[in-house]
Amino acid sequence: MLCTCSTIGATAEAYGARLGVPVLRVDRPMAAAAVAAAPERDTVRIAVVASVDSTFGPTCDLIREEADAAGRRADIRTVRAEGAWKHFEDGDRDGYLDLVARAVDAVTGVDVVVLAQASMADAAARTRDDRTAVPVLSSPGPGLRAAAAAVRQR
Fold first, then answer.
1. What pLDDT, on a 0 to 100 scale, did the predictor assign at position 147?
2. Predicted TM-score of the model (pTM)
3. Sequential DSSP letters for 111-149
4. What is the mean pLDDT of residues 26-52?
């Protein structure tokens, strides 16, 4: 099972393990890539962008878990894409993605930006390259590749 919700990902993994059902969080491969973003230092500086506050805790916890597994430290800053969620709820995809991209463009002093919600993936292409000189990671691509690899291994 591939869980695409960052907020309930940890719960899905826990129940999957308890029931003997393989569960992969779509955001786990992204979190691992974020931790690996600054290989020359023990600490990686990560900005987590979300449009709803409930996503921050689970995403930051996942990044810390991946950092611990890699023997690294994650210095995490959370950035709320103000007003974006209202556009999402209203079905205004362009408005949603534009506000997420604007939040990403305002981030400085980090090694990598993580888009905490799968729905934000297309915002990466809307960031202004001249202002966002760090990788902007999203979960759907790496998550789906990891899920496909897991299926091939079974």
1. 86
2. 0.90
3. SEEEE-SGGGGGGGGGS-TTT--S-EE-SHHHHHHHHHH
4. 92
In sequence order, which residues have a C-beta less than 8 Å from that of residue 92 and are 6 or more positions away? none
Per-state percent for the chain, helix, strand, coil, to nearest 5: 50, 15, 30
Domain boundaries of the chain, sorted by first residue: 28-138
Classify 28-138 by CATH class: alpha beta
Structure tokens at 148: 């496909």
What's the CA gap between 52 and 31, in Å, rounded?
18
CA 147 from chain centre, in angstroms, equals 16
pLDDT of residue 131: 55
What is the pLDDT confidence band of residue 129, given thresholds at 50, 70 and 90?
A: low
Question: In this predicted model, which residue has the larger pLDDT, 14 or 45?
Answer: 45
